[in-house]
């Protein structure tokens, strides 16, 4: 396929550009449906006249429907989007990028999604879908899945196909709650994913920013102790990666701690560990229930994070030995390759 793509790029590059444009339009309609032309034009930063022309073509091919509520992708359109995904992947040279990143970062596997979530938030849904597909391929009937909160991990649960058979899969939060966005908290995501997989879930009713003394008291409560015991038996850990400065702010860490993190060069935060660019732990939050020793016994450590602005944070976390599989986007991947 690569030879054909190379030939097309040399002889008819305008066809490749048109293909990518129509693929992007269909993909955005799919993730935002139903959506109007004006909203789509604004979302893609493409003139409404061009959008009108392209959607008229897509409708004539039976790939989208247009009704008073907005545009939607048809079943044929959904099938085509899935078929085009691998072609676009090859077209952008992402297969080679994945192999190069996996080799340089010493990871089992890297999956790179086209685009940059910093420029297009819908890329987060693409990452979620790819992560869900990978997760589905490794889950066993008796798997214990531990996961963190966050918008990217939330998309993994949202994009997981619904399973209609019962299983012994258990999903547990790896962290306590953070902030007011309940739908992005680990407890909520664990319940959504468990229901999608036909399994069961446990909740960890501990605030994420609680102090050491309170933690020491709470972990002896029978219900909480039971969840932590299950958590430590997880064979899959799914988590996001954040920039240290952003996460310190989001977790309302005291000014003295933030100053310390800046002083020691904290670059990333993952699973409660603040790491420098070399992957060394420089600070740990009190509410860590999966220690570094626990993580060594986990068979599948899956990190999902993207965006050019997070490249250093992703590189930092991958250098820590806490990641086996990385699902990221093109924007972050390009920046990481410049640094390693």
From TrEMBL:
Pfam families: CggR_N (PF21715), Sugar-bind (PF04198). Keywords: DNA-binding, Transcription, Transcription regulation. It comes from the Bacteria. Residues 19-88 form the CggR N-terminal DNA binding domain. InterPro entries: CggR_N (IPR048715), NagB/RpiA_transferase-like (IPR037171), SorC_transcr_regulators (IPR051054), Sugar-bd_dom_put (IPR007324), WH-like_DNA-bd_sf (IPR036388), WH_DNA-bd_sf (IPR036390). GO terms for molecular function: carbohydrate binding; DNA binding. Residues 90-338 form the Sugar-binding domain. Belongs to the SorC transcriptional regulatory family. PANTHER family: CENTRAL GLYCOLYTIC GENES REGULATOR (PTHR34294:SF5), TRANSCRIPTIONAL REGULATOR-RELATED (PTHR34294). This is Carbohydrate binding protein. It comes from Thermoanaerobacterium thermosaccharolyticum. The lineage of its organism: Bacteria, Bacillati, Bacillota, Clostridia, Thermoanaerobacterales.
């Amino acid at each position: 396929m690569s030879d054909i793509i190379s030939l097309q790029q040399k002889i008819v590059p305008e066809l490749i550009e048109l293909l990518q444009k129509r693929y992007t339009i269909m993909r955005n309609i799919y993730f935002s449906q139903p959506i109007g032309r004006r909203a789509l034009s604004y979302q893609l930063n493409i003139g409404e006249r061009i959008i009108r022309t392209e959607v008229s073509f897509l409708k004539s091919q039976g790939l989208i429907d247009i009704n008073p509520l907005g545009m939607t992708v048809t079943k044929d359109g959904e099938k085509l989007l899935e078929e085009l995904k691998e072609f676009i992947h090859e077209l952008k040279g992402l297969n080679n990028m994945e192999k190069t990143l996996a080799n340089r970062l010493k990871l089992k596997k890297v999956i790179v999604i086209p685009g940059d979530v910093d420029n297009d938030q819908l890329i987060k849904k693409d990452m979620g879908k790819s992560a869900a597909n990978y997760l589905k391929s490794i889950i066993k009937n008796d798997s214990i899945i531990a996961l963190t909160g966050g918008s990217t991990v939330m998309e993994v649960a949202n994009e997981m196909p619904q399973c209609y058979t019962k299983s012994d899969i258990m999903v547990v939060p790896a962290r306590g709650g953070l902030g007011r966005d309940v739908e992005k908290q680990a407890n909520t995501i664990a319940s959504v994913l468990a229901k999608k997989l036909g399994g069961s879930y446990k909740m960890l009713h501990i605030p994420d920013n609680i102090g050491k003394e309170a933690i020491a008291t709470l972990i002896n409560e029978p219900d909480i102790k039971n969840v932590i015991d299950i958590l430590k038996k997880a064979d899959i850990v799914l988590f996001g990666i954040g920039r240290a400065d952003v996460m310190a702010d989001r977790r309302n860490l005291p000014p003295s701690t933030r100053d310390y993190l800046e002083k020691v060069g904290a670059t990333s935060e993952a699973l409660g560990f603040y790491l420098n660019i070399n992957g060394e732990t420089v600070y740990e939050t009190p509410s860590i229930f999966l220690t570094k020793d626990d993580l060594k016994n986990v068979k599948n450590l899956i990190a999902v994070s993207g965006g050019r602005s997070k490249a250093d944070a992703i590189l930092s976390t991958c250098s820590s030995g806490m990641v086996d599989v990385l699902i990221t986007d093109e924007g972050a991947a390009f920046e990481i390759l410049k640094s390693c």
